[in-house]
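In the current project phase, the collection of sequences with tokenised folds has grown. A sample record is quoted in full directly below:
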Amino acid sequence: MLGQASRPEGTMTASQPLQPSLSTLARLGFEEPEAVTADLERLGAWPHAAAPGGRRLLTEVAGSAAPRLVARTLAAVAAAHPDPDAFAARLRRRPGFRRRLVAVAAASRSLGGWLAAHPEEADRLADGRRFAAPRPRAELAAEATATVRRLQDPAAAWDALRRFKRRELLRVAVRDLAGGVGVQEVGAELADLADACLEAGLALGAREGGLGEPSAAVKPRRQVEERLGEPIEQLRAAAPAGAVRIEWSRERDLLRVQGDVVEIAPSTLAEA
């Protein structure tokens, strides 16, 4: 489970006055404060005459587990966003949106970098209802499969599936970081997401190989289980952690089982 952010000693509260000096940022927990001022200014969180809500944003960034990383990541998302000013204003004024983004940026460089590359995906974190409950496996599989079916170009379909996977990883990470979700539940959600991506990937691989869509009688999940000789859940329960895993190969095989590794093409789904 991802660790929760903790506020370093010396971090201010939102009610304390700000003094526009590098020493103030250093006391708040920013290492090399001169390297972070431009990022904070972009977000309207610095200096002392910051935009409305900027003090609250600065407080939460400073109180995170990685203040400099969070400031850099949020500034990168804002710079890449279609409307940078509106994004920064939303970040300052909407507590739930700010809390979720700060937590993700502090916990995962990978997801933070992905949000900077796809800033419109960050807007999805504004609606807290998306993170209230887990998504059923069948719902995830249906969306993933529909995502690849509506695109005729294979490369575009793989890109869309890759983006679906990242979006759902972000959703699970937010639920994890918000607290109240146990390790087992987080693990189950990640397993369901892997199943959904596998099902959609097999459908897409079958189409690329000229085999058509998998028949209703033999679903992709069942194909995998038949090749492995056991239901996926039983393998997960019996095997050591990480012994049964799904990998995406560069080779064009529709499905290949080597020992305990299930591979389908292409590898780009896992590399995103």
